[in-house]
Predict the structure of Methyl-accepting chemotaxis sensory transducer.
Amino acid sequence: MSLTSEKPTQTFAPDSLPSDDLTVLPADSSPASESVTAPAATSPSFFSPAPQGSSTPQAFKGWQRLSLQTKAILAAVAIGTLPVLVVGSFAYLTADRSITTKITETDKSNAASMSSKVSRFIFERYGDIQVLANLPILRNAKVREIVPVEDREKILTRFAETYGVYDSIAMFDLNGDVVVQSSGTPLKNHRDRSYFQEALKTGKPVVSQPDISKSTGKVSIHIAAPVRDAQSQQIIGVVRSRMPVAYLNDVIKEFGANQQEYHLIDAEGKFFLATEENQIGRSAPADFPGLDRLMAAGKTDDAVMTDQIDGARQLVAYAPLPQLKGMPNLGWSSLIATDTSVAFASQRQLLLALVLGTGVTAVLVALVAAALANRATRPILAASTAVEKLGQGDLNTRITVAGEDELAALGNNINQMAEQIQDLLVSQEEAAQEQLAAQAEIAKQQAENARQQQEAKEFLQNRALELLIEVGPLRQGDLTIRANVTEDEIGTIADSYNATINSLRKLVTQVQAAAAQVAQTATKNEGSVKDLSEDTLEQTESIQQAVERIVAMQSSIEMVARNAQAAELAVQVASQTVNQGDEAMNRTVAGIAAIRETVAETAKKVKQLGESSQKISRVVSLISGFADQTNLLALNASIEAAHAGDQGRGFAVVADEVRSLARQSAKATGEIEQLVASIQAETSEVVAAMEAGTQQVVVGTQLVEETRRSLNQITQVSEEVTALVRTIAEAAIQQTEVSTAVSSTITDAAGIANKTSSRAFQALQAFQQLLEVAKDLQNTVGQFKLS
């Protein structure tokens, strides 16, 4: 009887949820009786799968121990949460990289902007000191005589107030003593100042490194420039402006917004301006380990570093001051530091949003999954409980089935299986009773047969012992012994034994004769087989040497073929190159023609430039005349001012400045006249050079035509060489094929010779073994007694 239902097995899918739950009822109960609730996990039974071996992973065993409802919930949570995690993680990583790049680029841009702003500010101060060094009240002796010291001090004070960044402007003589200064505390001798010495030594404006002023005790920047006499152009002193670093702080304080810390670093790598005043004067690489690498690179960059003062992790953007044309290299740099908690706050907010969204999604999915899994697994757990009861022996258990889905089919199959098991157990019990009765009758018959067999066995054992005693001398090789033949079974054995002894006696006699003959033949042929083996071995070695020579010749032929093919390819490439050269020559001729036209047009433009320079020369002559007249008028004005006395001093100063400008204008117009004359001369030379270039272009065109004809001849020769090389390559390929066939034939012959040598050697060994066997056989059969 079959244990399974005749209905086909149906697979339960989560989409086909049953309308009613399956309930487990005893076989004699009605559908209206109380249902049995199945536990979450069932204990093992004979319906359960076989236990896994010790090699099963622990995680897989743990998963197997979970209930179906728990597995369904976990799977639903994973399916609902993992996509959110993957998409969210990818979006976070992409956004994090984008935001980080934007933040770092913004910080670097701010650092570069601050460096540029500081550089331009210092460049303006560099220009200020040059304006001060050219003031007539400082460099013109006549003006100094006319303008009293008090007025000059007022002028310098007005300069300082107008610019608003200097707290002192002063001029020192060559010994470092003050000549004139703006209002303020009287200054002492400045001869020992480094910027003073450098300005005198180089004769150029100087910007000092930030240091503490000996006069005020404040961190200041000193800008100095040599003052040259207006007439002799000799250095007569040094003008110096002093700017406290605090004024520079006003310029860059805008870069301290959004909790950012700005710093300025001098040429020695120390902070001279910073948001936190306790950092001023400290070493920048010491406060920010790793900054020395950025400073050594000398370019705008950023990195995350630890501030050694407060231990905070900060995003540091570094930028050296750009080098402006006309200003010395100060070696300064700027640095903007932002706490990573502030700089990357947007990333943390994004991560928090992702974590919260994922958590909420996981909770919602878990709740929905728990509800669905509970409804989907309830009928399955009921069926599992019923199967467990059946496994424990309660065959009256039945499942109330409602509906026609897969779970209903499962319940019907379980009920049918329970009924079939009950019927099977009844049939097995009846068959067992019938089998016990039959086995009892068989046991009686077997006992009687055993007794009879024991008696016959004892009789046969006695007769066998007698036979063994009779044939005992046979063990020493005595073939003359005969056994006593009786009428029982042992007599039959004795008769057969006597017949066997007779046959064995004849066989031993024949073996003795054959062994002697085999020994004689083996001894006779052993030498011949040995000579055959040695000859075959020498033949094999000769054939092997021939094969090696043919293989070497084949390699040489193949190399020739490859070289011929390579030569043919090279000739083809050369032919293509010549064709390309011909096309290039055509383009060159067209280009040279275009150049010739361009040169002609350029010559016309140059002639027009010469004519324009002549017009400029005439205008410059007029300007020079105006400058001479202005100089004369300024001289007359100076004379009139001198006649006017003290009231005309101010006008005299203006007249001197106008005269100085007139002289400079006259000097400039003279230089322009010289420049225009030089342009005219060079224009004439350019025209002549262009005409010569036109002639050279014509000659170059002719040379290109001749080169093209030569390239055509080279192309024809290359085609002939290609044909010859192709013929050589084909012949080499044919030789390679022939040598390959010869090599294969000789290789086969060598193989045959090797096999022959091997077989001859094997035959020699076989003869030697045969001789030994014949001798052993003679010794063995000699032990038998035949008469």
